[in-house]
Design a protein that fits this description.
The chain is an alpha+beta fold and 120 residues long. The chain has two helices and six strands; from the N terminus they run ββαββββα. Helices cover 22% and strands 43% of the residues. It is globular and about 40 Å long. The model has no long low-confidence stretch (mean pLDDT 93).
Amino acid sequence: IRLASPDGSLILLFSSPFDAPARDEAKAQTKKAMLKQFAPAKVLRDGPSVLGAREVPSFELAGENDEDMLTRVLVYVDSTKWRTYVVTMLTGENPSARRLAEARKILGTVHFSKPVKVTS
């Protein structure tokens, strides 16, 4: 799932890379991929953050996108007994307080539950 602010200055990505609990593996793989994608990149913070009502592993890095623009990346990793989830927030170097507040409201509502099979 991809959510973007109207001006494109903030993007939230929700993914589920594993159909099993694998937070540490998902965090390590995501960090490796993000450091490569935004090279030269530097990890600014690596430690727990709050996603919804839970404290989850996370990291933040700064690097450059394909257009050589400074980009900040904040990644949250969570899992249930059914799946692992990675939530990624992408912003420019200095996102507006308004956009960050909007993103925090969205991230504050995140809750992962048992997946439901969709049938047509």
